[in-house]
Amino acid sequence: MSESGTSKFVYVTYIRTTPEKLWAALTQPEFTRQYWLGAHVECDFKTGSPWKLVFDDGRLADSGEILESDPPRRLVIKWLNEWSPEFKAEGYSRCTMLLEPANGAVKLTVEHAIDKPEAKLIGAVSGGWPAILSNLKSLLETGGLAIDPRKSGK
Amino acid sequence: MSDDRVFRALADGNRRQLLDRLHRRNAQTLGELCKGIEMTRQAVTKHLGILEQANLVSTQRQGREKLHFINPVPINAIAERWIGKFERPQLRALSQLKDMLEGEKHE
Question: Domains along chain A?
C-alpha cells in the first residue's frame, strides 16, 4: 500500500463523549461485547499484558500484547490474527488507538499497520473497522447500535 | 462531522478521483497524488483540504512528508443509514454482477 513496504489503514471518527468513557468502551469486556460484531476483548490493559479478542462462542479471534497503555489517551496493541491461517502467517500487526478531545467530542484515530507490502490482513480489517467504529459511535451517542450482531445471526 | 459536508465533498468528480487513487494505493504524499493527474498542484491541495474537513481523508506526518489515507468511516455511516443489514449480501451480489458485465470500473 505504501512504498515503504508497510501496509496501513488510518480510521478517524468523532464521537460526542468524553475520553474517559471512550477509553472504558474500548477496554471493558462487557462494553466491547456490545459493539465488536460478535467478539469482545479480554485484557487488563496494562503495558506488557497479554491481549485477546474472543468470539462470543469462545473461539480465539486475535491475540497479542499491550505495547503501550496511557489511559485515556493512547493504546498500542501488538496484534496477531488467530482465526485465519492465511492472515496469521503474515505475522504481527500493530494497532494504535489515539483519543484526542475535539470541541466537546473525542477524535478517535485507529491506525492498523503491518510491516509487509499489500498485506491481506490489512485488506480484511479495512472492511471490519468502519463497521465496528460506527457501532461504537452510535452506542456512545445514542445508546443504540447500527448493526446488532445478535439480530443479524452472526 | 456533518453529513452535508460529506455529501458536498463527494459531489465533485475530481475529489472522487483522488479517493479512488487512495483506495487503490493508500498512504500517498501530495507529490504522489499529483503524478499523472490532470489537476494543478494547487487544485489537488484544495480538494484534499475539503476531503480532510469532511473526514474522508486522514493524514499523518512522516518526517517532512504528509501522508494521505482514505477514511471510509463516514461512507460506512451513510451506507448503514439506508441499507438494512439483511439487504447487504443481495446488494453485493448485484454490484458484482454489474462489475462483471460492465468490466469492473465505475468512476
Answer: 7-146 (3.30.530.20)
Say what the alpha-carbon torsion angle A120, A124, A129, A130 is, to the nearest 10 degrees: 120
> pTM of this prediction?
0.84
> In chain B, whose CA is at the least distance from the CA of A151?
B85
Domains defined for chain B, CATH in brackets: 3-80 (1.10.10.10)
**Nearest-Cα residue of chain B relative to residue A102:** B1
Start-end of H helices in A48-99: 85-88
Of the candidates B27, B71, B73, the beta carbon closest to that of A8 is on: B27
Indicate yes or no: CB of A130 within 8 angstroms of CB of B72: yes
The three grid cell numbers given for residue A48, joined into one nine-digit string: 506488557
**Burial (Cβ within 10 Å: 0-12, 13-18, ≥19) of residue B68:** buried
Q: Could you read off the pLDDT of B9-48 as tens digits, one per residue?
A: 999 999 999 999 999 999 999 999 999 999 999 999 999 9
